[in-house]
């Protein structure tokens, strides 16, 4: 019994040190506070008539860092599923396409807007009336996250290009 214990004891410091080390590595890779490297402006979510299952969120994302980043995840209590979408012309029709991520090149502003890139909210859990607001959490490829409060706005432009899923 004693030898078994002795064999295991040297392992335990490693088990503690390794997670700490990986945390330190992450911190060293992003010396600036990662969450503020992506600036979010003009963020809003589209108001939809009651009963409509889906909506979309739009915003301008500016990557203020000197590294390429990507938006990889969205989460909200206001919808069952959140996907990253773009519009593509296919067979003469504008169609929505799901993206694995939305690229945010270093130093550039990427516009999520009606008819283009958007954060798709599928299976709304609440009515989105103009004047309301929802919480939207964004996750980036460096592991940083941002929580936003998005106003719900009526959008007339681009609605024709947003077919239902
Ligand atoms: Cu969409």
From TrEMBL:
Keywords: Signal. It comes from the Bacteria. Coiled coil: none annotated. The keyword Signal applies. InterPro entries: LpqE-like (IPR007410), Lxx211020-like (IPR058248), PCuAC_sf (IPR036182). Residues 1-27 form the signal peptide. This is Copper chaperone PCu(A)C.
């Amino acid at each position: 019994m004693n030898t078994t214990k002795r064999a295991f004891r040297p392992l335990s410091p490693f088990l503690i040190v390794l997670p700490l080390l990986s945390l330190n590595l992450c911190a060293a890779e992003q010396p600036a506070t990662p969450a503020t490297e992506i600036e979010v402006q003009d963020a809003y979510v589209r108001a939809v008539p009651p009963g409509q299952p889906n909506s979309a969120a739009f915003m301008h994302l500016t990557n203020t860092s000197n590294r390429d980043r990507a938006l990889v995840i969205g989460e909200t209590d206001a919808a069952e599923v959140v996907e990253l979408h773009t519009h593509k012309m296919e067979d003469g029709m504008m169609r929505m396409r799901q993206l694995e991520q939305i690229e945010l090149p270093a130093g550039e502003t990427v516009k999520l807007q009606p008819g283009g890139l958007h954060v798709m909210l599928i299976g709304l859990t609440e009515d989105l009336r103009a004047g309301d607001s929802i919480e939207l959490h964004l996750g980036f490829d460096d592991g940083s996250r941002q929580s936003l409060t998005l106003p719900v706005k009526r959008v007339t432009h681009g609605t024709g290009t947003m077919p239902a899923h």
